[in-house]
Design goal:
Elements (H helix, E strand, L loop, with lengths): L1 E5 L8 E5 L13 E2 L3 H9 L4 E5 L13 E2 H17 L19 H27 L6 H17 L1 H8 L7 H19 L4 H13 L9 H4 L7 H7 L2 H9 L6 H9 L20 H16 L10 H10 L7 H11 L7 E4 L3 E9 L2 E12 L4 E9 L9 E4 L2 H4 L4 H6 L7
Antiparallel strand pairs: 1-4, 1-5, 2-3, 2-4, 6-7, 6-10, 7-8, 8-9
Helix pairs in contact: 2-13, 3-4, 3-5, 3-6, 4-5, 4-6, 4-7, 5-6, 6-7, 6-12, 6-14, 7-11, 10-11, 11-12, 12-13
């Protein structure tokens, strides 16, 4: 049985099942182990980790009367919050004007265009990081041009580029992460009703938020194993490094602030300045959400990414500590309770992968079914629109892709070769 407890109640002999928060927030190579070393206990308490999950079937339980929450209780609360967001979706009016390039595009069409944008954007970001490593000022015109291309794609079909940019390798993570967070920031800005200028600033903040990683030695940035305390401190220096790199350029102060403060947390335990609540700018609070979502859904040198839907559920657990709750709800409305690429089980027992959101309901996306759990066999792929009148199917649960090991899962939903750039 799993229980969530405050780290103050963690003692030797407990089995640590999981840290509450992203794996980027702690220096541990593993997250599941029997706590037997006093040094590990002291290190956990030195970090900004506030809560952990323990497995009382594999180690000591908390003493009677100690505050603890079961996995079932947390899951019920999170599901309620996510479904509340889904049932209260309201689409914002978007004036596309007469520009044909910005008219809504079919998912299949936009995926092909998004693949081309991702390819060119990756090359540009690689160049941008190389220039930063040499101490050269940012080419703001080129950066803004990238933001405009990404923003236009999001305008035509928000699910395409956002979903495609998640399919990054561990080797190109740093560069494609910048592209993905840019797209997520643009989509979130549109969702909360920002005007065109503010939306472009949000996109630029997303594109530049991790530029400071250009100052991090590559052997640390791409290390596949546990970081030392010194290496972890170097990684955490990147917001200030990026802020310093960008100051000589004509970058808007709001973008500079988001680059500096995208690792701050609502409860004041973030870095570099331990800002709290409203002390954190709106753009920085948005960047915190978009940065973490893309990070935890992406493969890294030391860890495989989480399923998109599972990632949202976990982020909802951390809201009271990490994120602005209202912005996280808006983020859920932006990408869906079951984001594109999520593996789900339908009431019929068939498995499918989400291919596109439905504007009317976040609870009823389009799903491409391809596997029957009853026969334990692949079946001919079929698109099921769960929002269609008379559709008897519905999603009854998420599935962990790691447990099924479908090698072509991304190709199934995208219709494109793996990472086509």
């Amino acid at each position: 049985m799993l229980k969530r407890i405050d780290v103050r109640h963690l003692v030797l002999g407990m089995y640590l099942h999981e840290f509450c928060g992203s794996w980027m927030e702690h220096p541990f190579w593993r997250s599941r182990f029997l706590l037997t070393d006093p040094k590990d206990l002291a290190l956990i308490r030195k970090t900004n980790i506030r809560e952990v999950w323990i497995d009382v079937s594999k180690g000591l339980d908390v003493t009677p009367g100690t505050a603890a929450v079961s996995r079932e209780e947390v899951d019920a609360q999170v599901e309620s919050e996510l479904h509340h967001a889904g049932n209260n979706q309201a689409e914002l009016p978007i004036d596309l004007g007469k520009d044909d390039a910005l008219k809504p595009s079919a998912m299949s069409d936009e995926l092909r265009r998004a693949a081309s944008i991702c390819a060119s954007a990756k090359k540009a970001v690689v160049s941008m990081f190389a220039e930063a490593r040499m101490g050269r000022a940012l080419d703001t015109q080129t950066a803004q041009g990238m933001v405009d291309e990404i923003s236009d794609s999001v305008m035509r079909n928000p699910g395409a580029l956002i979903s495609l940019a998640r399919l990054k390798t561990a080797d190109d993570y740093t560069y494609m992460h910048s592209v993905a967070v840019c797209a997520l920031m643009v989509a979130l800005a549109r969702q909360i009703g920002m005007d065109e200028q503010a939306t472009r600033l949000a996109g630029l903040a997303g594109l530049l938020h991790d530029l400071g990683k250009a100052a991090i030695p590559l052997h640390i940035l791409n290390k596949p194993g546990k970081l030392t305390d010194e290496e972890f401190a170097i990684i955490r220096s990147h917001p200030e490094a990026g802020h310093s790199m960008l100051q000589p350029s004509s970058v808007h102060p709001a973008v500079l602030d988001a680059c500096l403060h995208h690792h701050e947390k609502i409860d004041g335990t973030g870095y570099p300045h331990r800002l709290k609540g409203s002390e954190i700018s709106v753009l920085a609070r948005m960047a915190a959400i978009c940065d973490v979502y893309d990070a935890i859904t992406s493969d890294r040198p030391y860890k495989n990414g989480w399923d998109p839907s599972e990632s949202l559920r976990r982020m909802a657990e951390w809201t009271h500590d990490h994120f602005d709750g209202r912005l996280l709800q808006a983020f859920v409305k932006t990408i869906g309770i079951y984001p594109v690429g999520s593996l789900v089980r339908l009431a019929s027992g068939r498995l499918g992968v989400v291919t596109e959101q439905n504007g009317g309901s976040l609870l009823a996306p389009r799903v491409k079914v391809f596997f029957s759990t009853k026969s334990d066999l692949r079946i001919p792929p079929e698109i099921v629109d769960l929002s269609a009148p008379g559709c008897a199917e519905k999603i009854v649960g998420r599935e962990n892709p790691a447990q099924w090991n479908f090698p072509d899962l991304n190709e199934i939903w995208s219709g494109l070769p793996e990472r086509p750039w």
